[in-house]
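Tokens as discussed.
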């Protein structure tokens, strides 16, 4: 049994005494109800979840690790059940807009929660962590159609997300990126290429995984000025908003790492996978 104890005393000191949270939230439109009682209730529940559910899985995740099969990646024992509890608790939508099913709380509240989950089990916490990046990208740059298609289930946690940037020849310098995107003429694009070290790239914890992918359009400028951003679902989405046919994106293998074995760090192959442009062409790094 893990001996992790959430640092509630330290978090409360920083929040309430150092940053004077009551004054801070009173000054934010829509956050006036974030009083001490509500903050304590959220922190207590997050601490309980981190200590009792996530921390005991930390050793399990490291010893078992994720397993690759042609049918998909499986996570360590207990990881999927813990994620379902995370969904049931409403944690994925803590700071997300109400119009997409979120609770619209300040991001600072979510940061306090994620600090505890990450301390308790960092490998597990990377799954919702990558989803947060996917959601934030859609909210900032996605069209209303993309938001309506993907955000509701990303916010509920029913679907998870990734960020697919790195390739074998480009890690810190994305100017050498080779993944390509071809316009299908129907509002979609065919994405082809291989991405490496993709955290949470494939797993058995959610029914769909929404990849945010960097790729180049034909005739794009060289270097970072010619990179576009796309959203590529593991399963194409039907008009009713459900999972449809499998998209041509898959995990080719798992990366071998020194630690965080409980998180699926994947080599992701895109073989003409159907995707959709986020933002403007050639502005993927804007």
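Sequence:
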């Amino acid at each position: 049994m893990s001996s992790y104890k959430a640092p509630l005393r330290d978090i409360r000191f920083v929040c309430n005494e150092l940053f004077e949270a009551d004054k801070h939230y009173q000054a934010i439109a829509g956050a006036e109800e974030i009083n001490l009682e509500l903050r304590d209730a959220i922190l207590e529940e997050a601490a309980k979840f981190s200590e009792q559910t996530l921390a005991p899985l930390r050793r399990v995740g490291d010893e078992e690790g994720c397993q690759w099969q042609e049918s998909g990646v499986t996570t360590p024992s207990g990881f999927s059940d813990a994620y379902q509890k995370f969904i049931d608790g409403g944690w994925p939508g803590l700071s997300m807009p109400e119009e997409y099913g979120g609770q619209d709380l300040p991001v600072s509240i979510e940061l306090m929660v994620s600090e505890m989950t990450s301390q308790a089990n960092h490998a597990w916490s990377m799954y919702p962590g990558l989803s947060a990046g996917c959601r934030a990208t859609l909210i900032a740059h996605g069209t209303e159609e993309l938001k309506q298609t993907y955000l509701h289930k990303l916010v509920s946690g029913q679907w998870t997300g990734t960020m697919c940037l790195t390739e074998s020849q480009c890690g810190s310098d994305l100017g050498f990126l080779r993944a390509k995107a071809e316009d299908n003429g129907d509002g979609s694009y065919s994405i082809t290429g291989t991405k490496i070290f993709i955290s949470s790239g494939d797993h058995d914890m959610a029914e769909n995984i929404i990849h945010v992918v960097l790729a180049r359009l034909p005739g794009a400028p060289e270097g970072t000025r010619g990179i576009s951003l796309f959203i590529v679902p593991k399963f194409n989405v039907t008009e009713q908003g459900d999972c449809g046919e499998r998209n041509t994106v898959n995990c080719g293998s798992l990366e071998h790492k020194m630690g965080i074995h409980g998180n699926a760090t994947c080599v992701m192959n895109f073989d003409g996978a159907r995707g959709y442009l986020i933002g403007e062409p050639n502005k993927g790094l804007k």
